Amino acid sequence: MASRILSTLHYVCSSSASATKRCLGLYSHWQRSISGIAASVVADVEPSIAPVQIDQSQLLIDGKFVDAASGKTFPTFDPRTGDVIANVAEGDAEDVNRAVHAARKAFDEGPWPKMTAYERSRIILRFADLLEKHNDEVAAIETWDSGKTYEQAANVEIPMVVRLFRYYAGWADKIHGLTVPADGPYHVQTLHEPIGVAGQIVPWNFPLLIFSWKVAPALACGNTVVMKTAEQTPLSALYVSKLFLEAGLPPGVLNVISGFGPTAGAALCSHMDVDKLAFTGSTSTGKRVLELSAHSNLKPVTLELGGKSPFIVCKDADVDAAVEASHFALFFNQGQCCCAGSRTFVHESIYGEFVEKAKARALKRVVGDPFKNGVEQGPQIDSVQFEKIMKYIRSGVESGAQLESGGQRIGSKGYYIQPTVFSNVQDNMLIAKDEIFGPVQSILKFKDLEEVIRRANATSYGLAAGVFTKNMDTANTLMRALQAGTVWINCYDVFDAAIPFGGYKMSGQGRVRGIYSLRSYLQVKAVVTALKNPAWL
């Protein structure tokens, strides 16, 4: 690890002797800072054999699994080792065009939007049943490709995906317009119509869960879909797409393209025959998605982007419960969560106690092969994310934050990082401002509500927030003052199919899940008919 850090320091500095000397000084400071820091519990990181075979690596276009038009493939990697799992078809603009053409034909000429809503709901329900039947295989693929623990994938995420598809299957035949009174002899009604071809792009941190957030409401409304998966995690979406075909989904209704953002993603966002876009990912990429939409056919866009969410622990909070919840809020999914509670604000009267208990909890966190029982934390997704996180850990030390635990790599292969806790973090430090997307908890101190509200809102993000207090007046003050799309009170990361999710400010626009998501996939048409001699108005 030392050689890699030293290489990085040399890389970011100039080649002059004085600059190199400064870099070596920073490296020595970092080494001194982490010496003696306690480490977390480490289970065996030697990779076990994944209990699943990969039998689907082609694109899904018009109901058939096909190679990319170019014949190209790209590797998807095992985060536990960096080894190749499979080579997957690399879709590009030509493949996107084929997929959009298939989706357009399925929408304009196919049976899907012309089915009764009840028939559509039955197909979605059959898919949910098949997914539930194949829960363990899908969870194993998700773990192998992303590094999340198998227990999390099998016991939490895949059941949540099943639940969400069933939720939207129930909505399919309950979407309807209104009859509207008008000033005059007119009959006025509104029709809620499917928007058409939906282009969707999902991230790598929750590949199948966010797949469900996008695909389920789109299909329930009668739309067709072209899905672009993350290049890091393409496998689970391809697997479940086969189950959709088995459930009876007509050809062209769901098309899945694996590929890269600058090629396949840009082509999808720019396509003139795509009627709507939904994107989850970084704020910088979200801005690019908006640009491409504006420069093409001005298609509406739903964005679920980054965050730097505050987790506020008030002076009257149950400290033990708050420590456990804040630990989960940050370290869940290896810290790779857009709504992670990554700024832990603790009242000054309980700050010392909280820090010691947060450190102790981090030291108990079990890191290891995500397929093994009892493991709480697997590897980060890839080398790029690994190096980014390590850079922020070094930045925290160099800027004067107190490294309480962790801070180093685990093992010599794969992308495992010790659960890391910083105290004495200041608002101007990078670890308090930037979205790290890793297992790094930053604990800040505050004096009163007015101060913590100001500091919590002093960010360009506004995805989520957490509040721990026993006082409902305090909770009511904070829930209304915090500029965030979701506020969890005495809990965190409570997700449900019916609860909307989305951000304020640069954390996005629009909402996913619940009834609010349906609005993104419907057009409202007003129909006005003149009446002759109406009996009533």
From TrEMBL:
InterPro entries: Ald_DH/histidinol_DH, Ald_DH_C, Ald_DH_CS_CYS, Ald_DH_CS_GLU, Ald_DH_N, Aldehyde_DH_dom. It catalyses: an aldehyde + NAD(+) + H2O = a carboxylate + NADH + 2 H(+). The active site is at E304. Pfam families: Aldedh (PF00171). Its EC number is 1.2.1.3. PROSITE patterns: ALDEHYDE_DEHYDR_CYS (PS00070), ALDEHYDE_DEHYDR_GLU (PS00687). Coiled coil: none annotated. Keywords: NAD, Oxidoreductase. SUPFAM superfamilies: ALDH-like. It comes from the Eukaryota. GO terms for molecular function: aldehyde dehydrogenase (NAD+) activity. Residues 65-527 form the Aldehyde dehydrogenase domain. Possesses activity on acetaldehyde and glycolaldehyde in vitro. Belongs to the aldehyde dehydrogenase family. This is aldehyde dehydrogenase (NAD(+)). It comes from Glycine soja.
